[in-house]
Amino acid sequence: MKDDKHVKRYEDLRSARFFAADDFRSFGHRSRAMQMGLSHEDWDGKPIIGIINTWSEAQPCHMHFKDRVEWVKRGILQAGGMPMELPVHSHSEQFLKPTSMLYRNMGAMEVEETLRAHPVDGAVLMGGCDKSTPALVMGALSWGFPFIYLPAGPMLRGNYAGKILGSGTDAFKYWDEKRAGTITDEEWKGIEGGIARSDGHCMTMGTASTMTAIAEGFGLCLPGASSIPANDVNHKRMSAACGRRAVEMVWEDLTPDKIVTKTAAENATTVAMATGCSTNAVIHLIAMARRAGIDWTLADFDRLSREVPVLANVRPSGKEYLMEDFFYAGGLCALMKELGDKLDLTAMTVTGQPMAVSLEGAENYNPDVIRPLSNPVYKEGSLALLKGNLAPDGAVIKPAACDPRFHKHSGPAIVADSYPELKKIIDDPDYPMTPDHVLILRNAGPQGGPGMPEWGMIPMPKALLKDGHRDMVRLSDARMSGTSFGACILHTAPEAYIGGPLALVQNGDIIELDVPNRTLHVKISDEEMAERKAAWTPPEPRYERGYGWMFTQHIEQADKGCDFDFLKTEFGKPVDEPVI
Ligand code: FES
Ligand code: MG
């Protein structure tokens, strides 16, 4: 049943060109659809909705998608559409080596081309584990037809021996304790079995929860969708609602350019800051915005970081709670309501209504979990963007997650050129160092890693752990897990592998960090820096063929979102619709 918002007729749809024409090709499409048991009643006059499913047996965070996709299909059928499930790369954070980030752009390309090549008019994107959200959204934005994002939902709280466990955060914490000898092997095994005990993505405010909140902040999810735990039955109802809504979006021609605007990028970044977001948010949000033709930069993050306080009292930036608590407290809609006029609620969303309508009825049921502006967890945003002679194109730190005494710090460098070299340093209980030293890992950036692995939360060295120290300044061109914590400076750009200043630091150089003034320096003269640069030789290329070769030829630096240079919106002319 069409309503007055419908602007598309069936004949206008992409899928009608595949199925409705009286020609030889359409005969092929119809006869092969019939081979699958479908009949004319399945497609005549109906939009086809592609369901981009990232289920795989190597993706624990999306295990429930095998079932959940049936609920999406139910919704599509209810609304008079035809579902077409299209599996794509699953971006498992745990199982992909050397790092899932190496494959984010490959996933984005796969999503874009899968949607473009198939007879679909709109899409439901099913994702949640860290890189899957940006990969799906980047690809679908470049495709440009109506889509809705269905977040996987967080796991329930972890539990072992009566203790609540948070993804990542507690693994790192107890690993340090195990290395310090304060917990037993049996306890460690118990934690292994209890920390991930349900479907869903990590349930701290790590990269996954941050990225799904950002998708909702962009207006790409149904209201509140990103906060629903994967195993809460509301998630099934939300999945069906995504299916229904995707059909309507096609009739309404609600394309992503009407949603992902500069205002939406401002809102999404504001939401990210208020969640106490993962540092990875910076790279992915920039990449997503750039796919929509929005020039979003580190300066935008720094500006909003100074204006927006952290309101979500969820680990690791918050003290106690996890995503399950956040959901019971009212979820992301309650947090957005608390943000008041820091959000522009005129922004359009996938509902076809402005954000203001999404927040009607939102309520904060627990102001300790979702803090009001008057009582934030942290009065400034969760990220600080640093610049200086060590990071001319920027670096990132999460002041909310590190010991405040390191916010202004100066200390001598200990440099590791690779992860094996670093391991030797951190595993040596007698390595000569003090908590004032700055531990550096380089050649771990977009090209150096390759793929910018999450090595940036360098484990605390045994030499300091044994004396009870649990934090020190650590510096790299890598990323770190969104569930990490500590005084870790990340994303240093340009990276060492391509000759950025980080490549030129020597043991004993004094590193100066000043978070309040947003600076990061190495205390050497410009002349000395120039001399060292002249003596620097680039490393041998790591790949001579394949995806790795393409990756290193075309990957951009962290401050540009690590997209491929040839996938940017301003690259070349728009892609033609396929000839059918
Ligand atoms: Fe998938 Fe953390 S491992 S979200
Ligand atoms: Mg992660």
TrEMBL record:
Name this polypeptide is given: L-arabinonate dehydratase
Limits of the Dihydroxy-acid/6-phosphogluconate dehydratase N-terminal domain: 46-356
Keyword hit for RNA-binding: no
Residues of the Dihydroxy-acid/6-phosphogluconate dehydratase C-terminal domain: 368-562
EC number: 4.2.1.9
Domain of life per record: Bacteria
Pfam hit, one: ILVD_EDD_N
Organism: Psychromarinibacter sediminicola
GO MF term set: dihydroxy-acid dehydratase activity; iron-sulfur cluster binding; metal ion binding
Keyword Cytoplasm in record: no
Enzyme class, first EC level, given as a word: lyase
Keywords: Iron, Iron-sulfur, Lyase, Metal-binding
Family of this protein: Belongs to the IlvD/Edd family.
Top-level taxonomy: Bacteria, Pseudomonadati, Pseudomonadota, Alphaproteobacteria, Rhodobacterales
